[in-house]
Design brief:
The complex is a heterodimer. Chain A is an alpha+beta fold. Helices cover about 50% and strands about 15% of the residues of chain A. Chain A has helices spanning about 15-25, 50-55, 100-110, 165-175, 190-195, 220-240, 245-265, 285-320, 330-350, 355-365, 380-400, 405-425, 435-470, 475-510, and strands spanning about 5-10, 30-35, 40-45, 60-65, 70-75, 80-85, 115-130, 140-145, 155-160. In chain A, helix 6 runs antiparallel to helix 7, helix 12 (about 405-425) crosses helix 13 (about 435-470) and helix 13 (about 435-470) runs antiparallel to helix 14 (about 475-510). The longest helix of chain A is centred in the last third of the chain and has 37 residues, at about 435-470. Chain B has helices at about 15-30, 45, 55-60, 70, 90-95, 105-110, 130-140, 150-165, 185-190, 215, 220, 225-230, 235-250, and strands at about 1-5, 35, 75, 80-85, 120-125, 140-145, 170-180, 200-205, 210, 250, 255. The relative contact order of chain B is 0.19. The chains are: A alpha+beta, B alpha/beta.
Chain lengths: ~525, ~260
């Protein structure tokens, strides 16, 4: 495979062909311009919203030059892939919009269900110059890219390597870097274009809530900082939700809303002005935020539920034994129709003035800085107390559950487990690592069991409800039979989860029996 | 990955011309292609303007002291790479013989590239040797250029007899007439008589490559004729030959099957 991975970049400078020929001639090279005039060039770099390709060491680019389109995939340690395409693709789109082949397979394996979006762009022209050895063999390519509007001054010169000619490419780089007015760049074309758009690779919207919390900071400031983190996540994901780019924007937004709700519920009382207002008085800002978060969570639930059903349907279809997967096609179409309706309602809600009001309240509640906060209780002391309380609630409720306890109690226990988990995440930066190592595995196991128990019940009930709603025209017997088979399997899944519960809870109880949450807090220091 | 090999015991019959042009056409059609110039003369290497040098030579390649991947050079054509010739290939027989299962060695050297290249073309030296046997074991399709003369056809018959008793994975064989001069009655008679050569895994292509000076001028222009003169009669002939090769080797637009 011919490799044309970018080599050394040279920044702004005057690099006409005479200069290039003189510089490279000193190394025994000659140069030849590949085309008579510069060719129009548009480069679009692609990645998911959460930079999955970049984190996997990959760089994907759509190149449009002289009426032709190609996709180029580069990796740090592998050969470059380049495939032609019939025409440019309008992004965002899923990876399966790429031309079929090895490049698409590599990208899709990393991006999963996330769509590719354009992260950076370059528009201008390119002059391509061949660097030749004494056999007139091309040993490197120079791409002289000039951004639109910059006249004849070169913006970037990229030395592009050919397989087997690394030594020659390196020598060409060295010779070029010695030219007056030319400097070696420290950033790739991609980073250069990102910087031009005011972005960089650190701009990743998955800040962990616990990052902002330190042991000695006032507890109220810690909680405010955590709420700010969740607000940042919501604001970052909102445009992607409204544009319906992929399902994960809504999922991440809902997770942030849910965690913010839990934070307000479990720890909002520490915030200024959080005391309960007298009867008849206007609700406090914290109470308003709690109400707003509930509204926001409820507004997003129908669409997310349908996303989960649609994403999970292929996996469920594979489990069918009596019916065939294609018998569920009508069910899939029904779900897709419901999803379209739910999203239209969600979109209207999210574009309403109420959302601006929610954000304003949220920002106000979470604007407390450590210097402004009351020092009465530190994050360490506060966190320890709340974690002990949350842990006790899990143990107390879980210990009452028997094989005959109604399902609702297990669903309530699931909520208590989530609350404990969220508190652990909020205070993770100040928890003893041994505590996390001890608690998290058994807590995750318990949550998975309770999650399977509840999700199976909810999905089975939903399938029965959907089946009932299907009109006579779409309710073909094979579809209904397949849906019935699915509901039966989900019922069995729920029963299996119920059977596993006692053992899993016992393991959790035993492993966390004598956990000391921040035991050094009792000594007043960490 | 499909491995094609141009082979004939006789020299100067058009092996390299075929290897160079077919490799170029494969790459042009979007198939990542590797051409390995196994002939110490290095004519294919010269055509692509690449220096005939492999670090450590044949011995290092066969012993894996130099990974084959390090020897690969990109040509000036997209998706077409080349393993250059090296003068040390004249001793490749000895180096192969020093290994266990010498006949299998080329196939084993090429196996790791199955995910990277759709087509490999081996341009073989004119000899009958361990290198030739190793090529035959590695190849899916042996392309045999034949000058249409009785002696050439006799040699072809000897080759197919040899392959019938080959102690290795015998390839399919596609002979094709090369350097054809239709003004010569001898050539026309030999081509007419060639139908008896086909049978079993042996076929004779319906395409023939005429003796054209533009093909000889490849050594001057140092470029496949299918690139330097794509509308020429010679290029059209190689295109037709490539179409037959694709059919016989089961190479579809989306890659080998």
């Amino acid at each position: 495979m011919s490799a044309r991975a970018p080599g050394l970049l040279v920044e702004r400078g005057c690099v006409d062909d005479t200069v290039l020929a003189t510089a490279l001639g000193a190394g025994g090279f000659t140069v030849r311009t590949a085309a008579t005039r510069p060719e129009p060039l548009r480069r679009s770099w692609l990645d998911t919203f959460d930079w999955r390709l970049h984190r996997a060491g990959l760089e994907l680019e759509q190149v449009e030059m002289n009426g032709e389109t190609s996709f180029e995939l580069r990796s740090i340690d592998g050969p470059e892939l380049s495939v032609p395409a019939a025409e440019p693709i309008d992004w965002p789109a899923q990876a399966d919009a790429l031309p079929a082949g090895l490049l698409r397979d590599r990208v899709a394996a990393v991006t999963g269900i996330r769509a590719l979006i354009t992260t950076a762009r370059f528009e201008g022209s390119r002059r391509t110059v061949r660097v030749l050895d004494d056999e007139d063999k091309t040993v490197a390519w120079l791409h002289v890219d000039t951004a639109a509007g910059e006249g004849s001054r070169a913006a970037l010169v990229t030395v592009s390597r050919l397989r087997g000619y690394d030594v020659e490419a390196d020598r060409a780089c060295t010779l070029l870097a010695a030219v007056d007015g030319v400097t070696a760049a420290t950033a790739s074309s991609y980073e250069h274009s990102l910087a031009a758009a005011g972005k960089d690779f650190d701009d990743i919207h998955h800040a962990r809530p616990g990052d902002a919390v330190t042991a000695d900071m006032p507890a109220s400031a810690a909680i405010a900082a955590v709420l700010r983190t969740f607000l940042t996540t919501v604001e970052a994901n909102l445009p992607g939700v409204l544009a319906d780019v992929d399902t994960e924007f809504l999922h991440d937004l809902r997770v942030a809303v849910r965690r913010a709700r839990t934070t307000v519920k479990l720890a909002g009382d520490i915030l200024p002005g959080a005391s309960s207002a007298p009867l008849g008085a206007p609700p406090s800002a914290v109470d308003r935020l709690a109400r707003d978060l509930k509204w926001l969570g409820d507004a997003t639930t129908p669409t997310r539920d349908l996303d989960v059903y649609l994403l999970g349907l292929p996996g469920l279809a594979e489990r069918l034994r009596a019916a065939r997967p294609e018998d569920l096609d009508a069910f899939h179409a029904q779900l897709a129709g419901y999803r379209a309706e739910a999203f239209a309602a969600l979109s209207a809600d999210l574009r309403s003035p109420r959302v601006a009001g929610v954000v304003a309240t949220w920002r106000a509640v979470s604007s407390l800085e450590p210097s402004e906060a009351s020092p009465s209780e530190t994050a360490l002391e506060f966190g320890a107390a709340r974690l002990r309380r949350a842990h006790r609630r899990v143990i107390r409720l879980g210990s009452t559950i028997t094989p005959f306890t109604p399902a609702g109690q297990l669903h309530a226990l699931r909520k208590r487990c989530k609350e404990l988990r969220y508190l652990i995440e909020i205070f993770e930066s100040i928890e003893p690592p041994r505590t996390r190592k001890r608690v998290l595995p058994v807590l995750k196991g318990l949550q998975e069991c309770l999650g399977e128990f509840q999700d199976s019940e909810v999905q089975a009930a939903a399938i029965r409800s959907f089946a009932g709603a299907m009109t006579a025209g779409t309710a073909r017997p094979p579809t209904l039979l397949a849906m019935g088979e699915l509901a039966g399997q989900l019922d069995r899944d729920q029963q299996r989860a119920r059977a596993r519960f006692a053992g899993i809870f016992a393991a959790f109880e035993k492993a966390t029996r004598d956990v000391h949450w921040y035991s050094k807090a009792r000594n007043g220091h960490r | 990955m499909k491995v094609l090999a141009t082979y004939n015991l006789k020299g100067g019959v058009g092996k390299t011309s075929a290897a160079v042009n077919l490799a170029h056409l494969a790459a042009r059609d979007g198939l990542p292609t590797l051409l390995w110039d196994l002939d110490p003369q290095g004519a294919a290497t010269f055509t692509f303007r690449i220096k005939p040098r492999v670090k450590g030579g044949s011995k290092a390649l066969v012993r894996r002291a130099t990974p084959l991947s390090r020897a690969i050079k990109a040509t000036d054509f997209d998706r077409l790479d080349l393993v250059p010739a090296d003068l040390s290939y004249r001793h490749m027989d000895l180096h192969l013989d020093a290994r266990k299962k010498p006949v299998r060695q080329l196939r084993r050297l090429l196996a790791p590239f199955a995910g990277e290249y759709d087509v490999v073309v081996l341009d073989c030296p004119p000899s009958i040797s361990l290198v030739s046997e190793s090529v035959m074991d590695a190849a899916d399709l042996l392309l045999v250029p034949l000058i249409p003369t009785p002696l050439s056809l006799r040699t072809f018959g000897q080759l197919t007899d040899f392959l019938a008793g080959f102690d290795g994975r015998a390839p399919r064989v596609l002979g094709f007439f090369s350097m054809v001069d239709r003004r010569k009655r001898l050539h026309n008679e030999a081509m007419a008589a060639s139908t008896s050569l086909a049978g079993g895994g042996v076929r004779i292509a319906s395409t023939s490559i005429p003796a054209l000076s533009i093909i000889e001028r490849m050594a001057v222009l140092r470029s496949p004729v299918t690139a330097s003169a794509p509308r020429s009669a010679a290029a059209h002939c190689y295109e037709a030959l490539w179409a037959e090769v694709r059919m016989h080797a089961s190479i579809r637009e989306d890659g080998p099957q």
